[in-house]
Design a protein that fits this description.
The relative contact order is 0.07. The chain folds into 4 domains: 170 residues, no CATH class; 312 residues, C8orf32 fold (Roll); 84 residues; 105 residues, no CATH class. It is built from 23 helices and 18 strands. It is an alpha+beta fold. The strands form 5 sheets. It has a 6-stranded antiparallel β-sheet. Strands 2-14-17-18 form a 4-stranded antiparallel β-sheet. The chain is elongated and about 125 Å long. Helix 16 packs across helix 17. A hairpin with a 4-residue loop joins strand 9 and strand 10.
Length: 767
């Protein structure tokens, strides 16, 4: 390979290696839910190119790496021995970076852009070293396939649709590398067999192989993939019976469930939290109608309960949930029946997309349709698929009666043994505090609650302290990445909105050994907009609040955020009044429930009829889409073929234009080569190692009747190739005429379609 071709080869491999790294890293960014901005793209490309260049330099001159490491070691030893301030500041920066990287990768802190860009550059640099070794040295592309395919497939089975798109392009570049390696192998065999290699074959191969690979990817990417799978009894009996987990791989049911889980509500759906991995920071509230709520009283609408605090944000560690039947009392209510006021809340989703079913207090049952829903121990309720716009459901809840004497009694404190349906793990999750939480949070909580005997009074003291000593603000600064969110709020910031106050009360209660959890949802206040007996809930009504376990009552809502009303609990009455009122409310509730249930089921039946009609229309529209896709694919294919045809048509014209500038001898050599290619297409090709005269004798045919035949053409070729006498213009015209007649004869023999493919798409005549 010439030096020029070596430079082209290195550049070609470098570009492909960079794109392979890009799509692998893009998959990582997709997993971390980080936007692949132009800055990140620049880092990926720069680190990839730098890594390849460094690797090639070290391979050729390894002594450079030894000198660099030696100088680095000497510099560190010098700065350490002389207690250099630069050394210690550098160590602090590195430790800070390593600590953040570990916490970020393990999901314990939020994205810190400067550190992340450094981490991204390091990851890309190391990854590029690995791929560079496979691309430039090993030259075994199946290693890239073996390494990359499981990574993309795992993400695809985790319902990341971007993984499939990334994988298509990844395979395209691996295929381009494979074809390149095949060319280098063929070139080696050509050289060993002393064959003549054209000077421009390398560039031509690069161009056409790249165009072919890209065309394959583009066509496969636009093909419709939403086809109904073939149902096979044999597959069900033989495969899925022996490997049941195969039936759960990305089928519609699991996709719906997985999609629903991913679409559970949290404050990152609202203006109160930009990212689910970072709390706080300045916000701007919008006034978008989210839902309408029909209720007799203002309530807290629970969406998500979170129990694990990382120091930067809250997440849910609960994986257990119960499958419940719509319209029937749920499992947790049946196990722990409570006495209280029954509340019915009808919710209609407007501009919110989530699988969460919002509820209040202790949900007893939910009426939506003849289906199932799911419920966690933290009383989250959700469906396996999304609740569409204008879909309504009714939640029947119980607001437990409260006996203030028992709640405030000094001997009522949290007791693990009293919680029959809780397990130890669940208790520990609601007492979790991150490692490294500053001790001053516990000291502050202890000093505030000191003198109060019951858990309720302690938490109430914490609530009053937060409401009285901290300012409500929608424009607090971002929390530094190396500071705990609660600690920073309590001791430095001292202003914030609901997420600050709710998080602080939960952590402060936990520091005192009182179970607490962080809840996100919507708060309906008494001053909320209300029309036609319905509350209008807007995006600005999103809210976060703490729920604390109080012995003698259960989970109780507290409101530490200034400006928000405290929740009203129903007090426990004397026994006679309670029985009389309960009997009356039970009869009313039963009538209300039956009426509401029948109305809901009727409306849902009507909705299902409408939905089935929509399904029929959808099926029809899918057929139309399939036709449109087919037309689009066909059009793209025709366009690609037309472009290739025009490109090669121009190339052929340029080839003959270049030939016309050459001598008669060179012209005859080129035309004779074209004639051999035509005869080869017509299945009368020349054997390897066969001389022109031997080939002419073996052929024994006249391609056309005329003044000159193939024998005469061979004689003119031999004269041009080996003779010393000059070639006349008449001899050249005879060879040219023979070429044109051979072309027409070949067209008649193989047909016009094959001839066009060979001539204008494969360019076999002009090899």
């Amino acid at each position: 390979m010439s030096s020029k071709n070596k430079i082209i080869s290195f550049t070609y491999k470098l570009i492909i290696n960079t794109f392979i790294n890009y799509f692998l890293i893009s998959l990582l960014l997709d997993y971390l839910e980080i936007e692949n901005s132009w800055v990140n793209t620049f880092i990926i490309f720069s680190a990839s190119i730098s890594s390849v260049c460094v690797w090639r330099l070290v391979i050729k001159k390894p002594w450079i790496l030894g000198i660099f490491l030696g100088l680095l070691t000497c510099g560190i030893i010098y700065m350490y021995n002389f207690q250099n301030s630069i050394y210690f500041s550098m160590i602090d920066v590195i430790n800070d970076f390593m600590d953040w990287s570990y916490r970020f990768i393990t999901g314990l802190t939020f994205l810190h852009v400067p550190n992340f860009r450094i981490l991204l550059g390091l990851i890309v640099f190391v990854l590029s070293l690995i791929t560079s070794m496979l691309v430039f040295s090993v030259k075994r592309m199946y290693f890239l396939f073996i390494i990359g395919t499981p990574i993309f497939m795992i993400r695809w089975f985790q319902y990341s649709d971007n993984a499939l798109i990334h994988f298509i392009f990844y395979i395209m570049f691996v295929l381009m590398l494979y074809t390149f390696n095949r060319y280098t192998q063929m070139e080696s065999s050509w050289i060993s067999s002393k064959k003549i290699i054209k000077s421009n074959i390398f560039k031509s191969w690069l161009i056409y192989s790249s165009i072919t690979c890209i065309s394959i990817v583009l066509i496969s990417a636009v093909l419709p993939r939403n086809f109904i799978p073939v149902s096979s009894r044999w597959l069900d009996d033989k495969i899925q019976s022996n490997f049941p987990f195969l039936g759960e791989w990305r089928n519609n049911s699991m996709k719906s469930r997985g999609y629903g889980d991913e679409m559970k509500f949290d404050l990152s759906f609202t203006d109160f939290q930009d990212s689910y991995k970072r709390l706080g920071g300045p916000i701007k509230l919008k006034n978008i109608l989210v839902m309408t709520v029909s209720s007799k009283q203002p309530v807290y609408l629970k969406g998500r309960a979170k129990d694990f605090y990382t120091g930067s944000y809250w997440k849910s560690s609960e994986e257990t949930f119960y499958e419940e039947v719509m319209g029937s009392p749920n499992t947790l209510y049946e196990k722990n029946k409570v006495d209280g006021k029954h509340i019915a809340v009808t919710i209609t989703h407007k501009n919110i997309v989530t699988s969460t079913l919002f509820n209040s207090f202790i949900p007893k049952n939910i009426v939506m349709d003849k289906s199932f829903y799911y419920m966690t121990k933290s009383l989250e309720t959700f469906k396996e698929n999304l609740v569409i716009k204008d879909k309504r459901y009714t939640v029947f809840s119980v607001n437990p009666y409260i006996d203030w004497e028992k709640v405030k009694a000094s001997n009522f404190k949290f007791d693990r043994d009293s919680l029959d349906y809780w397990d130890e793990d669940y208790v520990d999750r609601n007492l979790q505090i991150p490692e490294g939480l500053p001790d001053r949070i516990h000291l502050l909580s202890y000093n505030i609650s000191r003198g109060n005997k019951s858990d309720y009074e302690k938490v109430k003291a914490l609530e009053n302290y937060l409401r009285s000593n901290y300012k409500y603000s929608l424009s607090p600064p971002e929390t530094p990445f190396n500071k705990d969110f609660v600690d920073y709020f309590l001791f430095e910031l001292e202003e914030g909105y609901c997420t600050y106050f709710a998080s602080s009360l939960v952590i402060m209660a936990r520091s005192l050994g009182i179970p607490a959890r962080y809840v996100e949802g919507y708060k309906i206040s008494s001053d909320s907009n209300k029309t036609n007996e319905e509350y209008l809930v807007y995006s600005k009504d999103a809210h976060a609040w703490p729920e604390v376990y109080i012995e003698g009552y259960g989970w109780m809502i507290f409101e530490p955020t200034p400006g928000y009303e405290n929740i009203v609990y129903e007090e426990k009455m004397n026994v006679d009044e309670e029985i009389a009122k309960e009997d009356k409310s039970e009869r009313y509730r039963n009538r209300f429930f039956e009426k509401d249930l029948s109305e809901l089921l009727d409306s849902d039946f009507a909705f299902e009829m409408e939905f089935s009609q929509e399904n029929e229309n959808t099926n029809k529209s899918q057929y139309v889409k399939a036709i449109i896709y087919s037309i689009a694919v066909f059009s793209i294919l025709v366009l690609v073929l037309l472009i290739v045809f025009c490109f090669n048509f121009i190339r052929i014209k340029l080839i003959f234009k270049q030939i016309s500038k050459k001598s008669y001898k060179e012209k005859i050599l080129n035309y004779y080569r074209f004639i051999l290619n035509l005869l080869d297409i017509a299945n009368n090709g020349k054997d390897e190692g066969e001389t022109p005269n031997e080939y002419c004798k073996r052929l024994k045919l006249n391609v056309w009747e005329g003044k000159y035949n193939f024998k005469n053409t061979t004689e003119i070729f031999n004269k041009a190739r080996y003779g010393e006498r000059g070639i006349t213009s008449e001899e050249f015209e005879n060879v040219k005429e023979y070429y044109l007649k051979t072309e027409k004869n070949t067209l008649k023999k193989i047909g016009i379609i094959r001839f066009i493919i060979y001539k204008y798409f494969m360019m076999r005549i002009y090899k």
